[in-house]
């Protein structure tokens, strides 16, 4: 009995699988998918034939950007020439960096840069959050009829020209405007707000908010529509109020869109609205309203100094591109997608 018990086979203990077995299976599955993708991938000619209708629809948009954005880039050679319109690009003499040297020594140029940066800072602080706040308000409305009505109302000003918008503000806040007259009748003297250089930056920012905040809210409303409703339901069950749901659900859900638009806005920080400021430049004077766009217009088109004005425009474009690139790199370091993925 003891001998039989001693010779009985011991239980087999299974050996654990190798540590890299799961990784090997994942690699094999990945290679299999790649082989399947190569097999199912159609030739380029066949894909072009399949998508020819969509490609034809893209042609007008592509031509628009090529003709009006990429072809004019060749005109930047004027920045390095003593350009004369009757001589053209080929016959105008090259002057190297002379136009840039004269530009940085021009006091009016630095006045335009200072005004541009100050207006951009005010608009970044006041105008950029306005569409976000408006989208949060519209998204919080329960009645779909009220939401559609308010959306229509706030979208409409975008389709008005700046001539109409400035004229409306003149009728309201001008020297004989409705608001100004009402305040004067009640003993509050505010003067002509449309001619006050001290409040000019706030004036054009308020005009931009009134005109374009509703239109800018569209993309944020679209981003909010993609947020899973179960997240709101879970937070409500946990006792989160309206503000907590916005802070912990809505804003994190639209954060990639906010960062992308902020990066694009930083790249466009030296453009603050040419037509809007040109219409009101004479009211407050060039010292308070001259920006880079109006500087390029008056020195290039009006005064005929094509080389220096093109140099200013080229510097503006290079700085804007550098700001987009650096802001996108910063977004990548913070773990965000940015304008494009790494």
Automatic annotation (TrEMBL):
Give the Basic and acidic residues compositional bias ranges: 18-29
KW Iron (keyword) present: no
Where is composition skewed (Basic residues) in this entry? Answer: 30-42
Stretch list, region Disordered: 1-42
Going by the UniProt record, its keywords in alphabetical order are:
Cell membrane, Membrane, Transmembrane, Transmembrane helix, Transport
- Composition bias (Low complexity) maps to 1-10
One Gene Ontology cellular component term attached to this UniProt record is:
plasma membrane
- Sequence intervals crossing the membrane: 54-73, 124-142, 154-173, 213-232, 253-274, 306-327
Question: InterPro entries, per this entry?
Answer: MetI-like (IPR000515), MetI-like_sf (IPR035906), UgpAE/MalFG_permease (IPR050809)
ABC transmembrane type-1 domain span = 113-327
Subcellular location, record wording: Cell membrane
Please tell me whether the keyword Ribosomal protein is annotated for this protein. Answer: no
The family database entries (Pfam families) matched by this protein are listed as: BPD_transp_1
Coiled-coil segments: none
Highest taxon in the source lineage: Bacteria
How does this chain sit within the bilayer? Answer: Multi-pass membrane protein
GO biological process terms, semicolon-separated: transmembrane transport
Q: Which family does it belong to?
A: Belongs to the binding-protein-dependent transport system permease family.
This protein is called Sugar ABC transporter permease
* Species annotation: Streptomyces triticagri
């Amino acid at each position: 009995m003891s001998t039989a018990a001693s010779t009985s086979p011991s239980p087999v203990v299974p050996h654990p699988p190798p540590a890299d077995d799961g990784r090997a299976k994942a690699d094999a599955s990945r290679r299999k998918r790649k082989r399947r993708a190569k097999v199912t991938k159609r030739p380029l000619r066949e894909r072009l034939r399949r998508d020819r209708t969509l490609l034809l629809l893209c042609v007008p948009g592509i031509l628009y950007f090529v003709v009006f954005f990429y072809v004019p880039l060749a005109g930047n050679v004027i920045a390095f020439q003593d350009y004369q319109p009757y001589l053209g690009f080929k016959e105008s003499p090259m002057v190297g960096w002379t136009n840039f040297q004269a530009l940085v020594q021009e006091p009016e140029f630095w006045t335009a840069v200072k005004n541009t940066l100050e207006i951009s800072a005010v608009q970044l602080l006041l105008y950029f959050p306005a569409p976000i706040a408006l989208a949060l308000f519209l998204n919080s409305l329960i009645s779909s009829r009220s939401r559609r009505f308010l959306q229509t109302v706030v979208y409409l000003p975008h389709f008005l020209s700046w001539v109409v918008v400035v004229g409306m503000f003149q009728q309201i806040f001008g020297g004989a405007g409705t608001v100004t007259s009402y305040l004067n009748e009640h003993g509050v003297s505010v003067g002509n707000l449309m001619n006050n250089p001290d409040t000019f930056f706030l004036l054009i920012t308020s005009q931009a908010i009134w005109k374009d905040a509703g239109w800018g809210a569209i993309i944020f409303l679209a981003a909010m529509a993609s947020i899973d409703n179960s997240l709101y339901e879970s937070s409500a069950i946990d006792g989160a109020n309206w503000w907590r749901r916005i802070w912990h659900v809505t804003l994190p859900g639209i954060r990639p869109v906010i960062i992308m638009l902020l990066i694009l806005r930083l790249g466009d920080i030296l453009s603050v609205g040419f037509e809007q400021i040109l219409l009101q430049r004479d009211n407050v004077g060039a010292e308070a309203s001259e920006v880079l766009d109006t500087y390029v217009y008056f020195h290039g088109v009006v005064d005929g100094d094509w080389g220096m004005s093109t140099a200013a425009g080229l510097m503006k474009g290079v700085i804007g591109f550098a700001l987009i690139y650096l802001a996108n790199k910063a977004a990548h370091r913070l773990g965000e997608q940015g304008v494009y993925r790494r």
